[in-house]
Design a protein that fits this description.
Length: about 270
């Protein structure tokens, strides 16, 4: 995949210039926490010659770089729009846009109450293994993992299977909703081992404001916004943007399914 956006036509000169495709990362462009295949990156490059493309993940930019970029290629150069943390960290054509702060919005006192409750709750959970980084602080949210984000791939797979049977994350979210009903927070289960916590409205639909602002920058109005994601059921971290009236939602099972749908829609 090409290294710089300059090798692609300007946004206003794309053949399908009023269309943009937005992609979830984990489970949509890549296997969970693994890298994108060369075939996927090549297909995205072909698509980018036709219309605008963007990545929209709940994880921070570092993780998007690990999964989609390389040591020599910055992930922000691979997409016209690169949205990390649901768009709270955003890039347009490789340049950063304004960001938002979760802790600035919530306040330190409420933040400490939230984290302390999470750590106490995790201490009482019985799951196959526990590792490290149970609460990961990000710019626009926190990510909570009962097993810990330091788990290996094999441990993640084992926990995901265990969670499907015992609904560890679902029960955890219910406990948080009961404990903090007036904090104005949304809890979104995604990936294999964790869930995100962020202010209501700061889900993946947050990134659509930047898509809409493009009309005032380049003159391009995106009248068709395709979104591809794998966690599109209610409670999944793709649900809100998948169901949003501004998008055309595509529920995919895995990266191979994403490639199949793209080839069918755009004749790639």
């Amino acid at each position: 995949m090409a290294q710089a956006g300059s090798v692609y036509p300007p946004l206003e000169d794309r053949p399908v210039k009023n269309t943009i495709c937005l992609f979830d990362v984990d489970g949509t462009l890549t296997p969970a926490r693994l890298s994108a295949s060369p075939q996927m990156l090549q297909l995205l490059s072909m698509l980018r010659h036709k219309c605008a493309i963007g990545s929209i993940g709940g994880s921070d930019l570092i993780k998007q770089q690990e999964q989609l970029g390389t040591p020599a290629i910055n992930v922000t150069s691979l997409f016209d729009f690169c949205f990390a943390e649901n768009g709270l960290t955003a890039f347009r054509l490789g340049q950063p846009l304004a960001s938002a702060s979760f802790i600035g919005w919530l306040g330190e006192d409420k933040y400490k109450q939230l984290v302390n409750f999470c750590l106490r709750y995790i201490s009482e959970i019985d799951c196959p293994v526990k590792r490290g980084t149970f609460v990961e602080f990000r710019n626009g949210m926190i990510n909570v993992s009962p097993i810990g984000r330091n788990a290996t791939i094999e441990e993640r797979l084992a926990f995901n299977k265990y969670d499907q049977e015992h609904r560890i994350r679902e029960k955890f979210v219910a406990a948080l909703q009961a404990q903090f009903p007036d904090f104005g927070l949304t809890y979104s289960i995604g990936g294999q081992i964790s869930f995100d916590v962020f202010p209501t409205g700061w889900d993946k639909t947050y990134c659509l404001r930047y898509v809409e602002q493009e009309k005032g920058i380049s003159g391009v109005e995106y009248t068709t916004v395709h979104f591809f994601g794998d966690k599109t059921d209610k409670g999944g971290n793709d649900y809100e943007i998948f169901e949003d009236q501004r998008t055309v939602g595509h529920a995919v099972r895995n990266p191979e399914d994403t490639m199949k749908v793209l080839k069918e829609i755009f004749d790639l």
